[in-house]
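Field guide to reading this record: the first block holds the primary sequence, the second block holds the structure written as discrete tokens, and the final block holds curator observations. Each block starts with its own label. This record concerns XTP/dITP diphosphatase, catalogued under organism Adhaeribacter pallidiroseus.

BLOCK 1 — SEQUENCE
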Amino acid sequence: MMNKEASRENQLQAFNRLLNIMDELREKCPWDRKQTIASLRHLTIEETYELSDAIMRNDLQEVKKEIGDLMLHLVFYAKIASETQTFDLADVLNTLCDKLIFRHPHIYGNTEANTEEEVKKIGSS
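BLOCK 2 — STRUCTURE
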């Protein structure tokens, strides 16, 4: 089994590979170039249902595939938005990180929570 640093490096390399492929597809593939956020919407919904079905069947190989399909869509949306300088993937990820930190003051702040119930109580206040 890989150590944590090697595993993280592999994850970052794989994610960078995906971003490079998305850049290339958006530039060179007529179908990918034509897509808009609106045109991808129904395909994203379909992929979400496929992920849900794989989860319900406990088919972890299919779950892995469907997570990839959804990740492609998320990267695709961010790529399209970056082309109009609306936002980019870094904006998406930093917004998500800020939200997670805000929602977890028991981890990133001075609040204490040792049980799931205490965490839920913090979130509802």
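BLOCK 3 — OBSERVATIONS
The chain is about 80% helix and 0% strand.
The longest helix spans residues 4-28.
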